[in-house]
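Input for the complex:
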Amino acid sequence: MRIEPAVPAEILAAVRAPFAEMGASAIDPPIAQPLGLILDLSGEAMRERLILVQADGGGEAALRPDFTIPAARLHIESGRTGGRYFYEGKAFRAAPKGREAYEEFLQIGIEAFETGAAPEADAEIAALAWHAAAAGGRTDLTMELGDVGLFAAFVDTLKLADPLAARIKRSFSSPRRLWAMLAKAEEPVGSDAPRPAGDRLSSLLAGLPETEATAVLQDLWALAGIEPAGGRSAAEIVHRLAERSAVARAPQLTREQASLITRFLAISDAPTAALEAVARLAAPGGPKLAAALKGWERRLHVMIDEGAPAAAMRLSTAFGRDFGYYDGMLFEVRSAALGDHRPVAAGGRYDSLFSRLGASLARGAVGCMVRPGRAWREGAQ
Amino acid sequence: MTDPLILALPSKGRQKEQTEAWLADCGLPVRAVGGERGYAAKLDGLADIEVRLISAGEIAGALFAGEVHLGATGEDLLHELAHDLSDRVLLMQALGFGHADLVVAAPKSWIDVETMADVDEVAHLFLARTGRRLRVATKYLTQTRAFFARHGVTDYRIVESGGATEGAPAAGAAELITDITTTGATLSANGLKVLSDGLILSSQFQLAASLTADWNDVRRDAAGRLLRILEARARARRTATLTWPQSGDEAARAAVSELIAAGAKARPFGVLVENGAIFAATAALAEAGVGPVTVENPTYVFEPASEAMEGLARRLDRRN
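Predicted:
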């Protein structure tokens, strides 16, 4: 395992200093975390980055790849409603194939679990990440900003049929699926490939009211001697068939709409210019988008107030589309010398994490981490 | 023998029988050294090759690690060791047995799921509804991960399966599986269906060479002798010799001239053709009034150069 060299104490103190003003309590979560939980939350693509450990007869565990899930688990166990947590410790990630990287490295960060005005909290955390990252002496830093929620708000302004809008929003995290849908808008009507066998049954079921179709499907399973397996109910399957058929019958995505989506996803500019571009592209009267844009105005205002330099920021609408559990604003602080795939600091909002961890309390969650070894100007990676 | 070439062959079951039958057919019967239960053997007539009998899974690992020079094992087992094999193992010859397909299978009750694109969407919906990812039970982690990535499916996770993978969905341990199947009957009996685009790998036994092993000139010579025989036998099985009477030679040569231009080899009063061209040739000869024409399969067809050995030598030289 390649271990990151120690960062000099004065650099470490400088990176740590901005965190002291956040009013967070220090935590020291377990290094070994349940593997299943991490994979459920972060996805299979994470597996090759995990370093696994297993005691004789015990369940498989992973050395913590970051502190977000460990901190959220500690918080749930504490039973508290809100809380801000500070951590400083080693995290572990296997080097990606064909790339040299430290596999054991230091992270300093904060997780804020609280309800409240999201844009202000987002901005506070992003500005904190900026200051901590810059404390290591690098002068080539930039901040990449994104917002996972902005896409859905933009799609709403296109006034598409509900099932189609839902499918497109869902595709944000899967570029391939989205491009396939956009490409279809370019094709003349009726050029669909013939549906596979068994589709007659699907269209039949899709034509019935859903409760009736559910009963028919259950009868069919019984007739065919099929034991339903795999955690999906008849109602769920029928609902998807109905939705698919509704999408097929409803007006399709027009070329103009597809082109608007493509142009939206290409926006990457200084934040104010990027937000203006989004507003120009969208038809007026999208209340969600208007609220999202207003939120961003507020966010940027607070960030700049807190000393993050506007000139170093870039907002990209497609940034973060395939990043695990973030569901709102997200950001990375990058160094030109280190390159885009070695961010000095990163963070964002992930409000849905708690419900996914099975906690009944819905809470806001936003956090960031800094890698002192990367923030340190003389550090290699 | 100080520098033996090590050839690894399966040590048990049907794989052992089929591999030994293939070698015997090539004129190289495998003789166990030190009794029937021994794990070392020799090939008749090739004294400088040491045969090691180990399991097919271990053969793949040994080729990968460079512990053996040549080995016969399943393609599926080799591909499981690394996403990209090409700098460690060279596949030399498909052996025509040990066929098995690695496939993605979903519950039959999912009548709305036929393709990987459906899996992608269902996985996303499943995650949104339950907060959990669709679980895929498998013993083939590397290939499953690569295949799902190729299809852009991200909202899933793998559950490593130790034993009967096909039972995982019914047992509630997973929603989907990927597994080896030959007829699909076991999958079907467990309420599963193969996705229409769910074929990950169509596998069979392969003779493979390790590119990480220590190859000196002595071992290369030994490998060359073995490969030439295997190749000559494989070539013989693909071809047939047509022979005609001396009296019709001129007319016969004219009748098969197109075949010769296309690669068939002229013989004295005859021609060596691919099996697929036999009847085209006999028809042309009949039309030219040549007969009787006899057709025989040769036992071996040796060429001066061994393509397999030259290919291996090129890869080994590039390595240095």
